[in-house]
Amino acid sequence: MPHEDRLSACLDGDAADKGIGRVYNRFTYCARWNLQVEYWEIDSKGVPVERARTAGAVWRVFGQGDAKDRRVRIFSQIEKDSADYDWGPIDNIFVAPGVPLSLMGQCSQDSDVCGAGPGSYTLPWATWDNNPIWANWDIYNREQNSEGRDKISYNQWYVEAFTDNEEYTTLNRAETPPRLMRCDSATYFN
């Protein structure tokens, strides 16, 4: 789980809502965006055939650097009770809340520089909207790809949102702006 004091302090005020989010300190980043996902119905061969509609919510991301290891743990969630559907009066109740939404942490850099894991978290929209769970990923890098006395490098990461199942797909995945967080092997921070 995110460090509660850092999370509250970082999200306090409106700085997390502006542009690319807020760097609170060396170990803490947060952001809040309005997520919009466009869905397409697909045929039996997996080909998108008709635009179904859109769904949206308030999307929160929190990054927490590790003072003892070369990694950043990033967290993401849909803010409780923020989901909104544009599928029509009946489908807003019976279809859209059951459509799956996947969130996944990714590295912008090549895998020889940066790694991310585990894979995606996939839940129905209604579950994301009613459950305050945080999906999380570790973004890490390798010391041999770093520079200087402290073996400094920067992980560039982002979180993406998408759906890809047998009924619906998102042709364009929603992505947070990429962020850099420092990783190093210095021991004087510990």
Produce the secondary structure layout.
Blueprint: H1 4-11, E1 22-25, E2 28-42, E3 48-65, E4 71-78, E5 84-86, H2 91-94, E6 100-107, E7 114-117, E8 121-124, H3 125-130, E9 135-141, E10 153-162, E11 168-169, E12 174-175, E13 179-183
Question: Short summary of the structure?
Answer:
It contains three helices and 13 strands; from the N terminus they run αβββββαβββαβββββ.
Description:
There is one protein chain. Strands 1, 2, 3, 4, 5, 7, 9 and 11 form an 8-stranded antiparallel beta sheet that branches. Strands 6, 8, 10, 12 and 13 form a 5-stranded antiparallel beta sheet that branches. It contains 3 helices and 13 strands, in the order H-E-E-E-E-E-H-E-E-E-H-E-E-E-E-E. It is mainly β.
Keywords, separated by commas or semicolons:
190 residues; mainly beta; eight-stranded antiparallel β-sheet; five-stranded antiparallel β-sheet; 3 helices; 13 strands; 47% strand
Shape label: globular
Question: For the report, how would you describe the main beta sheet?
Answer: 8 strands, antiparallel
Radius of gyration equals: 18 Å
Give the helix level as a range of percent.
Answer: under 10%
Class by helix and strand content?
A: mainly beta
Distance between the termini: 21 Å
The average pLDDT is: 85
Number of strands: 13
Strand content: over 45%
Element-level helix/strand string: HEEEEEHEEEHEEEEE
Provide a count of the helices: 3
Low-confidence stretches: none
